[in-house]
Amino acid sequence: MVLPEFTHYQTPPKRTVLYKTFSLIADGFLFVGGASLAISLIWALLSTINPNPFEETITTTTQPSSNDVVHCSNSFSGVDPPELTFYDDPNLSYSIDRPIRNWDQKRKQWLKHHPNVAGSTDTRVLIVTGSQPGVCRHPSGDHLQLRLFKNKVDYARIHGHEIFYNNALLHPKMTGFWAKYPLVKSAMLAHPEAEWVWWVDSDAVFTDMEFKLPLEKYDNYNLVVHGWSHAVYDEKSWTGLNAGVFLIRNCQWSMELMEAWTRMGPQSPDYQKWGKTQKSLLKDKLYPESDDQAALIYLLLKENERWGKKIYLESEYNLEGYWLALVDKLDNITRRYMEIEQKVGDLRRRHAEKVSEYYGMVREEYLKDVVRRPFVIHFTGCEPCTGDHNPTYTWEACWNGMQKALNFADNQVLRRFGFVHPDLLDSSLVSPLPFDFPLV
Ligand SMILES: *[C@@H]1O[C@H](CO)[C@@H](O)[C@H](O)[C@H]1NC(C)=O
Ligand SMILES: *[C@@H]1O[C@H](CO)[C@@H](O)[C@H](O)[C@H]1NC(C)=O
């Protein structure tokens, strides 16, 4: 039960009757039913054996009333059993500077001791995103960050994903686009129950709230990024893939990939050298400094044997899509979707937000011949927080593009709440939706 390397520095605390009963029942039981069913049964059983099994674990000055017991039973699934796990190893570091070994076994062992959270781990996705620690330099920056975050929270809630928003710099030297790697590593350690960590840049907007990640497709892969093989391997283009949105499996392979990836980061003594190497490999790379996107392409081109097989370049849908090519299409897409809804009564039916995925499935068969909503629109180069946008476009274009994308997405959410933004460029204005919209 306990990893040998942990045994010599700490003796496991005594296991209580509660824990023994819990693991005995849970081990055999959770394969049969869902966690909540198992827990309520365990609770029922424990209550008959011992009317107050929490006596040993909870110190309380007042006598628990029956209401307290009900309350306790709800938080029961949150009990952390005393068996030692990687969390108890003083040598295990969250820092990206210190590699982690045997993560798969460590994670597996933790899951074994937490059968109540271990169910259906294959599809557990933790969305991780974030922004800088300080105030945005552009006066609208913080407003935009808030709306961009709201959009991610909406998507996560609709699909039952958890989300972690971070605005602390976890490694002092890893700033900008490099800041996400220390964070992704920490997120993997903090959420061993998550099979995937889904990094989403703050300036990316979910614009199809119904779209579900096709996770089955990625069974044999550990990293999924938006990109095109020919652009990476034949053209050796810096824009052959985009590292602003990616899915990374919570496993040892990913820990090692991030070690190799961040070897080229600003915390490395070879940072300057890597910038030159990347620039000579990828002719269209914009900056002289080593960046994470170029670093990933470098690994695909130069260390393909080691990494290539487990990296999936997704181009069938917009895991992220470049905003300039997409925002102008949103009005026509809205019209197309409304035409479909005018014909299909099921799609007009009002419903609870909880069943959104079902209506997404219903809609699917009517989308075969139409331009779909882009899944994610990425405002690459707009820099909403600082306002230091790429000089090839204007701030106004960025601002309008973001309003459009955010309101387009919000309309899919607000509809379940009975309202709509009639004008995608006017965020303040909402109208109530009539019954059977958009038939009338
Ligand atoms: C922790 O690391 C130190 C130094 O590397 C080593 O001496 C010690 O045995 C390690 N402890 C464990 C529990 O692995
Ligand atoms: C929108 O659709 C109209 C009519 O089909 C077409 O003329 C127009 O070019 C489309 N606009 C864009 C931006 O695709």
UniProtKB/TrEMBL annotation:
It holds the Pfam family Glyco_transf_34. The chain crosses the membrane at residues 21-46. Keywords: Glycoprotein, Glycosyltransferase, Golgi apparatus, Membrane, Signal-anchor, Transferase, Transmembrane, Transmembrane helix. Its main location: Golgi. One of its GO terms (cellular component) is Golgi membrane. Signal peptide: none annotated. GO terms for molecular function: galactosyltransferase activity. It comes from the Eukaryota. It is a single-pass type II membrane protein. Belongs to the glycosyltransferase 34 family. This is Glycosyltransferase. It comes from Trema orientale.
